[in-house]
């Protein structure tokens, strides 16, 4: 049986699964429309290309859809949930995948039955699937867990949702993010994670780590740059008076005097000073054009080697030059711990020339493209515009006219 399965191509495997379904019970028109080639391929991949297992799961999915009544599910039945924004399609990501946001409150599970939540979940999934383009077959889910106070209650809700997606929507979930869960949720999730089928594509993140996002930082830098280029009358008045607010030089001249350095000034002072300092013989005979360059350093500081020179008083914008005979001092490298010293190193993933990236950092980086959907306010009219008939109901069909 295994050799025959390997020899079958994709089309033959799809036809074999459909034949098994028709032998069990004839398919209706809607069921045949649901069991297209892409749907059967997803069920085959979920069951390891096993024809019998894929046919069994597909038959269970068809029976479940009939019990839920998906063909008769419309938006008018969930008017209160849609008005409150409990579950909706926020938009599409860069890969044209629909992004769903679930903001279920803890009181909702107490007031409403489990069947009501399942119908709300299925309705949101069907709206997301109907809004997909031709070459897209996956979606993204964002769970806002900040509205839950009990970690076990939210864990039950999350596991039930992932169970429905795995059993009846195989291969559809691209990524699921749990945002701001209760404090004890991380400990409970670590315990049940190995037993959840879709735990590999489920990540737990915190929205507090993205307060200063890249887009906000870029906007702030542009705003600061624009503010620095504005016209300031105080600065302009200071420039007309000839003032300087530099931390290195400070001088002020009047309107009648020209801007000249101290060594070129021709005005008389109360205490006469020599134009050229006598302590620097190298400045004797210097012309006014090059005297300014010689006045910033003494002869001793100019001719001493750079290796023994102290830090200059004037800040320098370029690093100091190294002496050719001076050897660069290398800091000793920290040795990598062995397995005998730390057995935990066996379970870490080392990369050549790179630091070890934890799972939390990878999850935060993967959530960054979907942060805008999480922070975007809910718009009921925009969400209803994504609904296609008959999911939109009578109200949406009226608005479409």
Strand content: 5-15%
Sheet with most strands: 5 strands, mixed
The CA-CA distance between the termini, in Å, is: 56 Å
- Elements, N to C (H/E): HHHHHHEEHHEHEHEHHHHHHHH
State the assembly state of the protein chains: single chain
Rg calc: 36 Å
| Residues in helix, % | 40-55%
Return residue spans where pLDDT drops below 50 for at least 5 consecutive residues.
1-6, 217-258, 269-283, 291-295, 306-311, 348-356, 394-401
Summed over residues and divided by their number, the pLDDT gives a mean of: 74
Question: What is the number of helices?
Answer: 18
Number of strands: 5
Strand order of the largest sheet: 1-2-3-4-5
SSE-based structural type: alpha/beta
Shape: globular
Molecular structure report:
InterPro entries: CRAL-TRIO_dom (IPR001251), CRAL-TRIO_dom_sf (IPR036865), CRAL/TRIO_N_dom_sf (IPR036273). There is one protein chain. The protein has 401 residues and is α/β, with parallel strands linked by helices. Helices cover 43% and strands 7% of the residues. It is built from 18 helices and 5 strands. Helix 2 packs across helix 4, helix 2 packs across helix 5 and helix 4 crosses helix 5. The longest helix is centred in the first third of the chain and has 18 residues. The two termini are 56 Å apart. The N terminus and C terminus are likely disordered.
């Amino acid at each position: 049986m295994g050799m025959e399965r390997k020899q079958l191509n994709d089309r033959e495997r799809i036809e074999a699964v459909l034949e098994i379904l028709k032998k069990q019970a004839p398919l209706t028109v809607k069921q045949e429309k649901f069991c297209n080639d892409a749907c059967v391929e997803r069920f085959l991949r979920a069951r390891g290309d096993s024809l019998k297992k894929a046919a069994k799961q597909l038959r269970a999915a068809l029976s479940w859809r009939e019990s839920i009544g998906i063909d008769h599910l419309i938006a008018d039945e969930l008017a209160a949930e849609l008005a409150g924004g409990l579950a909706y399609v926020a938009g599409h990501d860069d890969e044209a995948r629909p992004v769903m946001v679930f903001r279920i409150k803890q009181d909702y599970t107490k007031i409403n039955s489990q069947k009501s939540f399942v119908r709300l979940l299925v309705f949101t999934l069907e709206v997301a699937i109907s809004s997909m383009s031709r070459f897209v077959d996956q979606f993204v889910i964002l769970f806002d867990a900040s509205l839950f106070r009990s970690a076990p209650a939210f864990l039950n809700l999350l596991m039930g949702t992932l169970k429905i997606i795995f059993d009846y929507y195989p291969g559809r979930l691209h990524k699921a993010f749990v945002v701001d869960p209760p404090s004890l949720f991380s400990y409970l999730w670590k315990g049940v994670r190995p037993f959840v089928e879709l735990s590999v594509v489920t990540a737990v993140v915190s929205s507090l780590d993205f307060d200063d996002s890249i887009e906000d930082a870029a906007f702030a830098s542009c705003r600061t740059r624009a503010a620095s280029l504005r016209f300031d009358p105080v600065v302009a008045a200071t420039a007309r008076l000839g003032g300087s607010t530099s931390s290195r030089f400070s001088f002020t001249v009047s309107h009648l005097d020209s801007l000249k350095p101290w060594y070129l000034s021709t005005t008389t002072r109360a205490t006469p000073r020599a134009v050229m300092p006598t302590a620097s013989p190298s400045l004797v005979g210097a012309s006014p054009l090059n005297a300014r360059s010689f006045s910033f350093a003494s002869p001793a500081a100019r001719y001493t080697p750079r290796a023994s020179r102290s830090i200059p008083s004037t800040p320098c914008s370029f690093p100091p030059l190294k002496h050719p005979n001076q050897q660069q001092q290398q800091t000793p490298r920290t040795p990598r711990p062995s397995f005998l010293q730390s057995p935990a190193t066996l379970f870490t993933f080392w990369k050549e020339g790179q630091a070890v990236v934890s799972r939390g950092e990878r999850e935060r980086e993967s959530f960054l493209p979907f942060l805008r959907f999480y922070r975007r306010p809910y718009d009921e009219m925009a969400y209803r515009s994504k609904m296609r008939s008959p999911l939109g109901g009578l109200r949406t069909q009226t608005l479409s006219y």
